[in-house]
Amino acid sequence: MKISRLIRTESGINQLHILAIAVVGLILTLPTFFYNVFDAHDILFHLNWAQYFAEQFWQGDFYPRWLQDMNSGLGSPTFFFYAPIPYYITSFFHPLAFNTPEVWFPLCFSASLSLIASGIAAYFWLGTITTTNRAALLAALVYMALPYHLVIDLYIRFAFTEYWAFVWMPLILYFSQKISKGQKLAIPGLAISYALLIMTHLPTTLIFSPIFPCYILVITKRRRLKDAVIYGGLAMVLGIGLAAIYLLPALLMQDYVAIKDIASRPYFYFANSFLFTINKTGAVSLRNYLSFTLILQIGLAVCALLTSQNNPKLSVKREVVFWLTVAGVSFLMTTPLSHLIWQQLLIIQKIQFPWRFNVATTLAITALLALGIDSVKHPLKLLSQRSSAVGFALLIILLASGFVVTYTYTKPLVFDSETLIMMSRDASEYKPKWVTAGLFDNASIIRQLGRNLPPAQISTGEGSVAVKQWSPRSIIVQTSTNTDAVLTLRQFYYPGWTAKLKGQSVTLPTNPSEITGLLNITVPKGEQEVNVKLAAGGVERAGQVISGICALITFLLYFQLNKSDRFSRE
């Protein structure tokens, strides 16, 4: 069985529908191309990350964890912790940058691709729970345009990785549907799509991870339940293993940076981001709009529920109850009513902002809308029912509000001196712990250090130094000193930096300099060629090995299941 045979809806794929999704996706993201970078919350970080990740990738650094030119050339361990998949995809558009320093066009193309791919993935999934492609198409288009997905994550926040997570969630639900029907060949698909979600956005993964196992339990018939649990569990374990190359360093190396420190800041404290509150900390206008849209979406969910009551199928009723529960729980988790839950379950505090549960609400509304539309067999009668008419009105208000907010909020980003200074520094959570907070928090100082410091200098002792190679995670310098000396490189210290003399296996002493946290190396006197590398440590190596093993298992499993399926059909 070919993979194309597996990835299709129950009623087949309508190519015109796929084309419609692509056209709508391009239209909805067209404003991004008209701005020479628009002003959004996190845009400066993503501009830097996309540029430096792509540059190092095309230079042969196939997993750019250490961004050498970040922090004005002082380096940053950003992608030891930040999810890489959206930046890999964006890197393939890097040749289209047209030499623009902001790398805006690759991000635009990537954003368009993400929205289109999310619509197609939703179309596949919704095709498994509806009887008509029409219902799947309409709901998939709404999924693309719902405010949290399009307006908040793209135009207001530019939450680039969370925005890309909307691609993988419906794909996971699609394969979950296949698992529930006993299709073993869906195991590799579920494992890969889950790994992609993990390597795209961890907070969304934390929100979504309980949803799809529960989904499998609810929609699976009793006689298949045992097999579905085994298949789903195996896929989940394989997915975590496939993502270990990213996940292990991201979880186990946090003591090297300031990730844990930012949790104490008021902006990141969960109780300051509940919806329907008057708290003055954080983005109040954002929370007000999210509160408004959430009320509309709950109303829309109720209307979809009433409309879907016309469908007598037990499977539809199970879907409706499940997604109504998801919508209700997600609503609860965004409000102060869930304060005790947030306080007791420390793991969910990693999500940071309660309103991020809107990702689950968006999925739930999409499913309920598809089921409601599918329950009305005659499109002309869709508005004849009171619940359908009210739901349609709420949907129009919801989508219209998104366009109004986008139009009024979005404006071009002005690259003035203050903006350029802010771009000189990475996000504060990725500050190596050896750099003092007072220095790192001042972006202008970081910029001055990066601009004024030579790539390498003798900071203690007398002599000269020349750089022979300066590439990510690999630096070669030539020193000439009369005595032992301390060599300082224009890169932040980080565990894993090792220095050796050419032709020798003995490791030279390395340590961080005080205050600046730059890399210091003690070199012996004389003419020396010093090879400095940021070697992969045990955690990084372990992640690579685990992912490699799981990738091999996934491939062999798919090959064996495909072979068995073909044999059974013959």
Which sheet architecture does the biggest sheet show? 5 strands, antiparallel
User: How many beta-strand elements?
Assistant: 9
Structural class: alpha+beta
- Helical region count? 23
Radius of gyration: 26 Å
- Low-pLDDT stretches are 1-11
Read across the widest sheet, the strand sequence of neighbours is: 2-3-9-5-6
Query: Portion of residues in helices?
Result: 55-70%
Question: Any key phrases for this structure?
Answer:
Immunoglobulin-like, disordered N terminus, single chain, 5-stranded antiparallel beta sheet, alpha+beta, 570 residues, 9 strands, 4-stranded antiparallel beta sheet
Descriptive account of the structure:
The chain has 570 residues and is of the alpha+beta class. Among the domains are: 165-259 and 538-570, no CATH class; 453-535, Immunoglobulin-like (Sandwich). The protein is built from 23 helices and nine strands. The protein has helices at residues 3-6, 15-34, 43-58, 70-73, 85-91, 104-127, 133-145, 147-156, 160-180, 186-198, 202-208, 211-219, 225-242, 244-252, 284-308, 314-333, 339-344, 358-375, 386-409, 417-422, 437-440, 443-452, 538-569, and strands spanning 456-460, 463-471, 474-481, 485-492, 497-501, 507-508, 510-512, 518-523, 526-534. Strands 2-3-9-5-6 form a five-stranded antiparallel sheet, with no helix packed on it. Strands 1-4-8-7 form a four-stranded antiparallel sheet, with no helix packed on it. Helix 9 (160-180) packs parallel to helix 12. The radius of gyration is 26 Å and the shape is globular. It starts with a helix and ends with a helix.
